[in-house]
Specification:
Aspartate Aminotransferase, domain 1, alpha/beta, eight-stranded mixed sheet, 14 helices, Aspartate Aminotransferase, domain 2, 2 domains, disordered N terminus, 435 residues, homodimer, three-stranded antiparallel sheet
């Protein structure tokens, strides 16, 4: 199914009749799609089965093993080792460029480590300040579009979210530098590399400005979710400056909490999560962690150590992920270019890594596009989900998650998505002309 | 090393010279022990290596497996299934006598699930009430002696702890029924079967009185930590009434949160934890859990399902644990009987299961006994740790954890402990006579 000749020009420049014709064609194509009875889910950045198979070695790592002592002499099967296996901390240390003793391992979810850090701020506070629950209304900066689960955690604790526009270089730092003058602003969410969903990697200058930040609140914390630190998809991967080293230069290392995990390296449901922080923060976190649990799952950490070996092992594994993901990203980008290129009704990202393609459709059309796709059997991430409170001010942002569906299904889903974008855009243009 | 003849009578009934002689003998024996340069740790109820080896099959369960879908069709390696694998929930359901759909699985730590439940009360509240952090001073009932980590969680949140004496039938229910008339009392900790450290299993009447409890606080929660539900050590295991069923009879099912885990069934550091609760509580918990994490480690749950099969599989495995643990408990009890029996300076429990022997020495002697043991190289649980704020009002309670040391070391440690008890007691008696 190819575009007709009308589609080679910007839609808005067409005559009323031409737009009507384009709308009718899109509508006809849409009905055809509906009749196919598709059932696809592209809502989340879930790795596909072939990716999961790359890490099957993790499950074999403890096969026929009878020795479970780690380098400290602790039996990995028993209680203890509050901060996790030294060998696994060393792998994260190398990947993140942070000393191993500033790293704490969690279980399978870095989201849970973030939740717990926000909870700790809420119930006990940071840097000797009053807990946030006793400080009246507090606020968090939320670069947007961003990660819906960050926003959900913030909202759960009743922390007011202030959206900050995402630029090509990362969040609008002029705005952030102004906003942190407010003492009730207690932190900022960041996905600094291959940002969810924009694919933007923060520029060196953005990272430096975060490191130089002098917030009014002593208990301000940058939640640096480096979820895609090794998730490159091209030969020219983005380079992210090491924020911890930058902070050390300015004595601001207490204001950043850094997160990573193997969720999209080994298994989303059974990986290893990690948190890196300054000595003072680690001491604070230890007080809570040692009350909360008798240690994370060290056998799973041992499995990962035996399978991954070291940071190079991780990087080599990530090449396998790239081989599976890169063609899927091409399917998405090719479809967008072929079906929507030049129409002036959509812009999209060309990420060098990560899990998402960011699609901006005409203002006021995103909800309609997502609803149309759902009607025809393709579930996308809810429109608005990438903004605090689910409120996209332009109703234009759509997150495309190409990883999970098989290539053939992805092609179909993209075809439908492009039809839906054209249908919504032509309907909007017709409505405007009618006014 | 046997006791001398003076030891066959109650110490307090001896003449001053006889006590002096007993003190000197104990002192000499103690110095001999110190010279041995022991280094043993009996501080925690840690399973021993032989116990951990019983569950090695867990690690083989996914060997050479290529199929990871559970009965719902979800790939256990991927994100999702917020409440855990249905098959594993079914095993806990059968063990606890509670419908599977009222069970949520966690990761490796039931303590973490308890911490999170207390945290949820603190930050968000239960049953539509204000969060505890907004209600001013709130209190928790703490049957004592009890589990130090329960008390640590309570103290972490600044919740005032009210000790409640443990009787042979469980906590003093007359007192609890009076105390819950206070609306600021928000909950009560319980280890209802083979209680840590007393070994007491709550009587049917105690369970019924908990179920009939009508606390003034609508957001009152019984933290029912059924950690030792299948941890029998004799042919006449204690029977615990099903509190959930009892609560249903009185419409009080919202006031109990039930916890269990395989920490002492498979691996302490890598087991599966579970929480059971009423439909209304599960709905409340779901709101938090689905924000906090994208699911617990389902691969580890699948490992456990494949290894354990069902509740009978668990019970059969527990017979293996009993074969290892029962002789260790006998070593402890035989040593106490042989070295301290009839002296009138100590009482101890004869538990039918669980992980501890509860030793009560002469008032004012527990800290001294633990310090003496430490001096000679044997680390026991800190004296006082079994009471809120570490404050044993009588300074008499000592928790003996026989599971971890090899039998020979356990014998040595018990010999030392008995010497320390006699030394502390004779010193106390001499001090009293001198006054």
């Amino acid at each position: 199914m190819k575009l007709t000749s009308t589609a080679s020009r910007k839609l808005a420049a067409l005559s009323l009749d031409e737009i009507k014709e384009a709308q009718q064609e899109a509508s006809r194509q849409f009905e055809e799609f509906k009749a196919r009875g598709l059932s696809l889910n592209m809502a989340r950045g879930k790795p596909c089965v072939e990716q999961l198979d790359l890490a099957l070695g993790v499950l074999e790592a403890l096969h026929a093993r009878s020795e479970f002592a780690n380098s400290n002499g602790d039996d990995c099967r028993n209680y203890g080792v509050w901060n996790g296996l030294p060998e696994m901390r060393a792998i994260f240390g190398e990947l993140l460029g942070i000393p191993d003793d500033l790293i704490i391992l969690g279980n399978n979810s870095s989201l849970q480590m973030m939740f717990d850090c926000i909870s700790q701020g809420y119930t006990h506070g940071y840097s000797g300040c009053e807990p946030w629950c006793r400080q009246g209304d507090v606020k968090f900066l939320c670069p947007a579009p961003g990660y819906d689960r960050h926003f959900a955690v913030t909202e759960y604790f009743g922390i007011q979210m202030i959206p900050v526009p995402m630029l090509k270089t990362g969040p609008d730092m002029d705005l952030i530098e102004r906003l942190v003058q407010d003492e009730t602003v207690k932190g900022c969410w960041c996905v600094p590399k291959y940002s969810n969903p924009t694919g933007v990697t923060f520029s060196d200058e953005t990272v430096r400005r975060f490191a130089r930040l002098k917030p009014a609140a002593k208990d301000f914390r940058i939640m640096w979710d480096n979820a895609y630190c090794v998730h490159d998809l091209t030969d020219e991967p983005d380079q992210l400056l090491n924020i911890y080293e930058e902070c050390l230069k300015h004595g601001t290392e207490d204001q950043v909490l850094i997160f990573a995990s193997t969720s999209k390296i080994s298994f989303p449901g059974a990986g290893v999560a990690a948190l890196a922080a300054s000595k003072r923060n680690i001491d604070d976190l230890k007080l809570r962690t040692t009350v909360q649990t008798i240690g994370s799952d060290k056998l799973n950490q041992l499995r990962h150590v035996l399978f991954l070996h070291d940071a190079d092992g991780v990087r080599s594994l990530m090449k396998g992920h790239r081989r599976i993901l890169e063609p899927k990203f091409h399917i998405v980008l090719d479809a967008l270019e072929q079906e929507l290129g030049g129409l002036g009704i959509a812009r999209w990202s060309h990420p060098h890594g990560g899990y998402f393609v960011n699609l901006d459709v005409m203002n006021g059309c995103a909800r309609q596009v997502v609803a149309l796709c759902k009607e025809a059997g393709v579930v996308l991430t809810d429109a608005g989900a990438t903004f605090p409170y689910g409120a996209d001010p332009n109703d234009s942002n759509i997150r495309i998650a190409p990883s999970f569906p098989p290539e053939e299904e992805l092609r179909e889903a993209m075809e439908l998505l492009c039809i839906a974008v054209r249908l919504a855009a032509t309907e909007k243009l017709l409505y405007e002309r009618a006014e």
